[in-house]
């Protein structure tokens, strides 16, 4: 004869339900999307600092006049890295718009204006290379795994 302790089963089921709720709240909450959006901003910033566009191609060279201005200011001109004062790339941020949508944006309007101009000349403000998309996907999976592990499931 099998005896079932219904109070224990009920308690275990309640605990499981609670842990599932905690994991779900983390997984569908804004925390994961904020982290992934912030990582996307970092990918864009690092790639741009290396003088590469969203397709992984080298940026076209600065105009002769602008290169001279940057050189006089003691700034890097080769490869072009879109960094004169640091304002634009330093204001690049990621945030969660909803649990399933994030965005990368510039926290300062002056930086956003510079970025719009620079993006026309040197397409940098995008993520479309497979390795960058895979890095973000791997990070999402890692965070979901952490949430599940923390919940004790």
List the helices and strands and how they pair.
Layout: H1 6-27, H2 30-49, H3 64-72, H4 87-90, E1 92-98, E2 101-106, H5 109-121, H6 130-151
Antiparallel strand pairs: 1-2
Helix pairs in contact: 1-6, 2-6
Describe the structure in your own words.
With 153 residues, this protein is mainly alpha-helical. Strands 1-2 form a two-stranded antiparallel ribbon. Helix 1 packs antiparallel against helix 6 and helix 2 packs antiparallel against helix 6.
Structural class: mainly alpha
What amount of the residues lies in strands? 5-15%
Order of helices and strands: HHHHEEHH
Helix content: 55-70%
Largest sheet: 2 strands, antiparallel
Shape: elongated
Strand ordering within the main sheet: 1-2
Unreliable spans are none
Keywords:
mainly alpha; 153 residues; 59% helix; single chain
Task: Compose a concise summary of this entry.
The chain is mostly helical. It is built from six helices and two strands, in the order ααααββαα.
């Amino acid at each position: 004869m099998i005896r079932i302790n219904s109070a224990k089963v009920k308690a275990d089921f309640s605990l499981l339900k609670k842990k599932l709720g905690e994991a779900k709240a983390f997984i569908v909450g804004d925390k994961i999307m904020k982290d992934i959006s912030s990582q996307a901003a970092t990918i864009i910033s690092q790639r741009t600092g290396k003088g590469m566009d969203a397709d992984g191609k080298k940026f076209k060279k600065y105009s002769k006049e602008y290169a001279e201005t940057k050189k006089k200011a003691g700034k890097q001109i080769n490869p072009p890295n879109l960094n004169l004062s640091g304002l634009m790339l330093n204001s690049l941020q990621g945030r969660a718009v909803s649990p399933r949508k994030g965005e990368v944006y510039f926290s300062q309007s002056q930086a956003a204006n510079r970025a719009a101009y620079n993006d026309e000349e040197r397409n940098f403000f995008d993520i479309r290379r497979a390795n960058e998309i895979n890095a973000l996907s791997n990070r999402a999976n890692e965070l979901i795994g952490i949430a599940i592990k923390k919940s004790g499931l």
